[in-house]
């Protein structure tokens, strides 16, 4: 194959490449994918035919044929690139215009309910509403003493047996026994005149029974710390608050519970109530007595003088109502806040304010 033939073939290939390029570009512009593919396939067939002719004539000029085949391969690669770009361009072509709206189809059957959705975010609080109009002032019915010969309308208020009652409905019943009465204030109807003494766990108590205005009965138990004579002090005995014992000619009262093995006057478990008086002076000579039976003669002695009365011993003294301006001595008893208190030391101090200064002997019962 000479140089002239190679130039002719080269020109033919150039024209073929330009023609294929125009045909593929036209097919892309028209949006015809099948025409673009057909042009590409025709180009591949033509190239195959040219390659076959080149190979048949390549026996004389091997080197020239190799160069030609390289050009043919380059042209084939360019055709493939053009075809690939054409495919991508066809995929991005715009859709056609929308068609006219069709008629509405028949309603389909209801589907099954879907699963429950998650709880949404809580909404913001709403604004506060406007204040309402003030109501009228209420009126409390006048209170009167209950009478058995009188009928009472609904909402009537009466007092009876220390309590206050209001009628739920019209009634002539007795408050505390009829369901038509509502107790507003439960009071004390009766307090037992005498308390019962009892001992529990070695300690003395006073039990007082109280009857309420509702008819219920309650029993109040308070410690009994009043003086309780027990005779001469015994070391083996366990003394409770208020127990009295004598020792060395004096009277002592237990200051607290469970005093055991402590002699009166040697510790803080005892309070001196009465002290032995001093020995009296010798009394004056007495008058001659009646003659006795005759006896042996003896010396007549002188009669001793009569002694005078000794001073009064120290006792636990009742001082009445507590006076904050007064200084009290140990063993004195006062009334303060409905209770009896025993002074445990000398000096000022309010009963119940600080431990160790006063001890409560008895408290008044209160309703529960």
Q: Ranges with pLDDT <50 over ≥5 residues?
A: 309-315
Mean pLDDT: 79
Distance between the termini: 136 Å
- Broad structural category: alpha+beta
Order of helices and strands: HHHEEEEEEEEEEEEEEEEEE
Hey, roughly how much beta strand do the residues contain? 15-25%
Spatial strand order of the main sheet: 1-2-3-4
Helix content: 10-25%
Number of strands: 18
Q: Radius of gyration from the CA trace?
A: 65 Å
Tell me the overall shape: elongated
**How would you sum up the major sheet?**
4 strands, mixed
Number of helices: 3
Chart the SSEs and their pairings:
Blueprint: H1 3-29, H2 33-56, H3 62-91, E1 143-145, E2 157-160, E3 163-167, E4 181-185, E5 188-191, E6 196-200, E7 203-212, E8 217-223, E9 228-232, E10 238-239, E11 243-247, E12 250-254, E13 259-260, E14 270-274, E15 318-321, E16 333-335, E17 339-343, E18 358-363
Helix pairs in contact: 1-2, 1-3, 2-3
């Amino acid at each position: 194959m000479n140089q002239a033939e190679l130039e002719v073939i080269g020109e033919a290939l150039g024209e073929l490449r330009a023609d294929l390029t125009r045909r593929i570009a036209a097919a892309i512009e028209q949006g015809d994918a099948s025409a673009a593919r057909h042009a590409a396939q025709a180009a591949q067939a033509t190239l195959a035919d040219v390659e076959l002719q080149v190979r048949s004539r390549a026996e004389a000029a091997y080197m020239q044929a190799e160069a030609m085949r390289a050009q043919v391969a380059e042209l084939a690669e360019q055709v493939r690139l053009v075809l690939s770009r054409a495919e991508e361009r066809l995929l991005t072509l715009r859709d056609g215009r929308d068609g006219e709206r069709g008629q509405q189809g028949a309603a389909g059957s209801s589907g099954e309910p879907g699963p429950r959705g998650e709880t949404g975010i809580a909404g913001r609080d709403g604004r506060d509403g406007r204040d309402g109009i003030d109501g009228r002032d209420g009126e409390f019915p006048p209170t009167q003493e209950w009478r058995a010969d009188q009928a009472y309308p609904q909402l009537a208020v009466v007092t009876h047996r220390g309590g206050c009652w209001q009628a739920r409905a019209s009634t002539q019943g007795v408050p505390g026994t009829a369901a038509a009465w509502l107790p507003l204030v439960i009071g004390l109807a009766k307090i037992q005149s005498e308390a019962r003494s009892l001992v529990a766990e070695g300690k003395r108590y006073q039990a007082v029974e109280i009857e309420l205005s509702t008819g219920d009965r309650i029993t109040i138990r308070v410690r009994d710390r009043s003086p309780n004579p027990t005779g001469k002090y015994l070391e083996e005995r366990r003394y409770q608050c208020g127990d009295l014992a004598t020792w060395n000619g004096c009277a002592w009262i237990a200051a607290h519970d469970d005093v055991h093995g402590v002699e009166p006057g040697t510790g803080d478990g005892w309070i001196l109530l009465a002290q032995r008086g001093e020995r009296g002076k010798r009394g004056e000579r007495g008058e001659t007595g009646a003659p006795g039976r005759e006896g042996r003669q003896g010396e007549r002695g002188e009669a001793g003088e009569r002694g005078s009365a000794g001073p009064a011993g120290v006792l636990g003294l009742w001082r009445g109502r507590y006076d904050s301006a007064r200084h009290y001595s140990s063993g004195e008893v006062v009334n303060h806040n409905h209770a009896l208190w025993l002074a445990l030391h000398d000096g000022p101090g309010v009963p119940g304010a600080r431990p160790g200064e006063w001890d409560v002997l008895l408290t008044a019962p209160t309703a529960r």
